[in-house]
Amino acid sequence: MRSADIPSENVDVKAKQVAVIGAGTVGSCCAWYLQRAGFEVTVIDPVLPGQSTSYGNAGCIAPSHISPFSYPGVMRQIPGWLLDPGGPLRIRWAHFPGLVPWLWRFWRAGTVQGVEWSSRAQARLMKCVLRDFEEILAETKQTHMCKSRGAIVFFDRREEFEDARWQFDLKDELGFEWQHLSPGELKIMAPALRQDIGMSLYYPDWQHLLDPGAVTARIAEDCFKHGGTWLQDRVSTVETSEQGITLGTESGKQINTDALVVAAGAWSNQIARQLDYSVPLTPKRGYHSMVGNPGIELDYPLMSMSRSFVMTPMQDGLRIAGTAEFAALDAKPDYRRARVLLEHARHYLPELECEDVDEWMGQRPMMSDSVPVISPSPSRANVYYAFGHGHYGLTQGPTTGKIVTALISGRQPDVDIHDYRFERFRG
Fold this sequence. Notes:
By secondary structure, the protein is α/β, with parallel strands linked by helices.
């Protein structure tokens, strides 16, 4: 139900009940915008809002990161990454056979044309994210949880920057700003960082959250405060009929709803295959080491492009996040990956104190073409998909929520969603 003190958009269709599967940043933002637009919303997740994958990410709102993870030549780099104990990539070999179809599509996506398509698709979303995040933070009274300072990225060697130059050419072409930093500028901005690195850059449009899990939880709580309903359970079955949609949960509950949003992150195929079919989505695990009382102060997130991780200052300490591990959804975490990140951080921050460290693992929902699914179902009325955002679920959560709300309201979204269609993988 809509509260009188929450501004609403005009709903062009009869008010509906909408169930949202997933309480991460994407699902919570979908629920928040839907409730604000006048829908009766129920959010369902086995984990509390913001306490799964959205809890432990690097906390960066990263609009200029538009290039895909598959590109010409990437497959030649994978063996070296796998053989390096400190490298950015791991594959659980017991789970490799199940990963092969996804890897095949990942490789096929990494053409010059694929990179161009993916980057432009991401850019359309990224052009909206700062505006949409500002709106939802203001409405949920959380602007103090966001720092708009930009971010520093750096390479160990200039040659590495030249190898990645195509990514920065794409940023230039698509209108995303970046700047070179001189050694003197870097020393002023990040005095704790080792100064023998090869090259550093500044992304002025990046922002970071002081606690992404808490921000996500607050967005969901604001939805519930104004009439939304929370159900902590796992949806196991979905059936559709002319009368509506019926969800069955693991605990035996039955939920009847007029419309459904599938925003279950890396678990979304478990629902999609019951309604349509599976798409090339796989969990790409990330880890973090959270350092309380780090003994240093950082004003900006610092991202090592050479070692593929981020160090973000947060209200409870320094979060060191990154790495990519491919394993089954139910595989146990390997916290050696978090400890590798901590060693990387010590390399770049010699004065870092590491006596108080918590470790974490989350499952990024990664599409083979690096582009999320934001789309109506191709075959089921009143079913909508919002998953597969990979590293950018936090960044793109509010924008995705606005798109999904427009679709369910019968309005044209601000963003052309053609490239985010569910059925693109059957083309």
